[in-house]
Write a structure and sequence with these properties.
Keywords: Transport. Belongs to the bacterial solute-binding protein 1 family. This protein has 24 helices and eleven strands. The protein starts with 12 loop residues before the first helix and ends in a 5-residue tail after the last helix. About 60% of the residues are buried.
Length: about 500
């Protein structure tokens, strides 16, 4: 869900991205939630399971080291010449120098594409759709959807007017769409593009029952903290490497007269991302997988430890812009923009979220790598966390035009167009590095591709929608309540477990 994440930024946590475990896959076949569990394929991954199970912590450590190195390199390479304030929609060749994807002529055809994207993200995606129209002659209409998108699609299906293609932000949503009979398998051309351009892991998370239903058009690095460089300079603050360092940096920023953190608490998913990074680093990959599958309860001591750690920031007086009440009234986009407006006296000095925050930063005219910098989410435990997410194109109304559009979205051509516009990260390994508008983004993209199949997906996106993907319900609401009262950890755990047990069908 949401979208992306650098000392700058370049570090692409995706590189360090925690690998997604295959054990989630087994569960995924039996429950909607596990369907988000996705993280590995439903079939033909048996051979990998034992290897992944024994190498989780090692992989995370290596990834974290690579991530930190990449970030450092990216920061030194950010320059004005790399900036791109508009990009282009020109067709681009494959990264390997081959020909562009071949698309059929679709004169007179029309189709609808639904996604939850808004603002700059929606605007940039429409430029990709415009290129598809130019090449095929088809007419494409973007349909703004609401969260949770599965409910939105359900109403459209019930009314007999489903969009032809939908961009789904959770693996579980793909399985749910398949189980309901809405989603249609991808055809030979789209599948061919995926095989040529994506690692097996990214192909597998779009599969249900061994069939390819989703093409992951977009990825996200959700383990970054962006900061106002001028605020840090004035305060004499430095980029933290550990949670303890982060608390120290926050105090330094506070002492300089600026509130340390901006939190977009009106959007519950931002709070789940905070929790996931702390939990993954502190409890470790194995526990992360178990909690994602509800194999351990939210009343587990590891959850208590993570919530207690979060309270060191959420519960600290004057550490969050506007306090808890203000944060709960602040949507994600505003949480970013208010960090980079107001000169050296913004409402906050730092804001946590993924690489996609670049789109909102751009709206403030702050220059990434100079005015707006980024560092990896600090290590809370032994290693720094790396959490990823993404959006997959799924066909709901099968037709030649719909298949052609998903084929296009699975190609380097489409991804290259949006990469040039900024604020976007593609798991497509054949998108040329040069397509990304600055060194920070290029480094992040390289790290993502280099990670191959070693990544862990957003935990809430793996959960049943009722628990991990619905405004005002489940984990979103319970963490909002916890932000409002971070002192009552036990009550927060009990409420989280009650909501999880109900959503997971009483299992776990």
């Amino acid at each position: 869900m949401r979208s992306t994440r650098s000392s700058k930024f370049g570090t692409v946590h995706i590189d360090s991205t925690v690998h997604i475990d295959n054990h989630r896959t087994e569960h995924a076949d039996t429950t909607v939630r596990s369907d988000r569990t996705l993280r590995t394929g439903k079939t033909s991954r048996t051979a990998r399971r034992s290897a992944f199970a024994t190498s989780g912590r090692r992989t995370t450590r290596v990834s974290a080291v690579l991530l930190a190195t990449a970030l450092a390199l990216a920061v030194t390479g950010c320059g004005g010449d790399d900036d791109n304030d508009g990009g282009s929609t020109k067709p681009s060749a494959r990264g390997d120098g081959g020909s562009t994807v071949t698309l059929p002529k679709l004169d007179g055809e029309s189709l609808e594409v639904a996604a939850v994207w808004t603002g700059g993200e929606q605007k940039n995606f429409k430029k990709v759709l415009a290129e598809f129209e130019k090449r095929t002659g088809a007419k494409v209409t973007f349909v703004p959807a609401q969260d949770p998108i599965i409910n939105f699609l359900g109403s459209k299906v019930a009314g007999g007017q489903p969009p032809d293609v939908a961009l789904l932000p959770q693996p579980g949503a793909i399985k749910q769409a398949v189980d309901k009979g809405w989603a249609k398998p991808l055809g030979a051309e789209a599948t061919k593009e995926l095989a040529e351009n994506y690692s097996q892991g990214w192909q597998d998370i779009g599969k249900v029952g061994g069939k390819q239903y989703g093409a992951y058009y977009k990825a996200a690095n959700k383990s970054l903290i962006w900061y106002n460089a001028k605020v840090f300079e004035n305060a004499g603050a430095s980029e933290p490497k550990s949670w303890k360092d982060l608390l120290s940096t926050a105090q330094t920023v506070y002492d300089s007269g600026v509130t340390p953190f901006s939190v977009g608490g009106a959007d519950g998913w931002t709070l789940t991302d905070w929790f996931e990074n702390v939990y993954l680093s502190q409890a470790g990959p194995e526990k992360y997988d178990q909690l994602a599958q509800h194999k351990i309860k939210w009343t587990d001591p590891s959850v208590k430890q993570a919530l207690t750690t979060l309270a060191e920031i959420w519960g600290k007086k004057d550490y969050v812009a506007g306090g808890a009440k203000g944060a709960l009234g602040t949507a994600f986009p505003e949480s970013v923009t208010q960090t980079f407006t107001g000169g050296d006296q913004p409402k906050a000095g730092m804001v946590y979220e993924g690489d996609f925050a670049q789109i909102n930063i751009a709206e403030t005219k702050a220059k990434i790598g100079t005015d707006a910098k980024v560092f990896p989410f600090p290590a809370v435990g032994d290693t720094a966390p790396v959490v990823s997410g993404g959006d997959a194109a799924v066909i709901l109304d099968d037709s030649k035009a719909a298949q052609a559009l998903v084929t296009f979205l699975a190609s380097p051509d489409a991804a290259t167009i949006q990469a040039e516009l900024g604020g976007y990260l593609s798991p497509n390994k054949n998108v040329p590095d040069s397509a990304y508008p600055n060194e920070v983004q290029r480094t992040i993209a390289k790290s993502l591709v280099a990670a191959g199949d070693d990544f862990r997906f957003d935990m809430s996106d793996q959960a049943p929608q009722a628990f991990g993907g619905t405004p005002g319900k489940g984990e979103w609401k319970e963490l909002q309540d916890f932000l409002s009262n971070p002192k009552d950890v036990a009550r927060a755990q009990q409420k989280l477990e009650a909501a999880a047990a109900k959503a997971y069908g009483g299992k776990g």
